[in-house]
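tool_call: predict_structure(chain=1)
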Amino acid sequence: MPVDHPSAVVVPVPETEPIVARWRKRFDHSAAEGMPAHITVLFPFLPPSRLTDDVLAKLREICAMVPLLDVEFATTSRFPDHMYLEPRPAGEFIALTEAIAASWPETPPYGGAFPDIVPHLTVAGGIHEEQLREIEADILSRLPIKTHLNHACLYIYDAARWQVAASLPFLSDI
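tool_result:
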C-alpha cells in the first residue's frame, strides 16, 4: 500500500533564489526535491487523500483574506544547526499559519514539535558551524531583498518530488 505523504502550504519567494539557490541545493533536501525557496506556512498539512474540493475551497478562502505582502529579508537567523532568512514583517505569516491550523486542528505547525511559529526561509541545515558561518557571510553580503508576495501554494510530496497542487492567491485590490 502506498504511503500517503503529508502536503505543505508555503509562500514561494522567487526573488531570493539568486542568493539562496546554490546553498539550498547543497544543504536543504527540499530544494533537491523540487521545493522552491519559500516561507513555510503549515507543514505537515493533510495527506493528498484528504485534499478534497472543500479543503481547497477553504484554503483559498483563508488565503484570500491575507493582504498582498511587502516583505523584506535583511538578516539571517538560526535554529540549532540551521540557518534561515527572516521575513519582516512576520505577523501576516503567523496569522495565516494560525488560521489554517485552526481550520484543521489535526495539523499543528511542525506536528506540534515547537511551541512558537517562526516564519522563515530555510537556506541550509544539518551542517557544522564553520559551514553555517561561511553561508551566512555570503548571504548577508547580498541582503536586503525586498519583495511583493501575492500567493501561497499547496504542495504535495510523491516520495521523490514536491509538486504544486494549487495556487492560493492573497487578497487583491484589483
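agent: The mean pLDDT is 94. Proceeding to next step.
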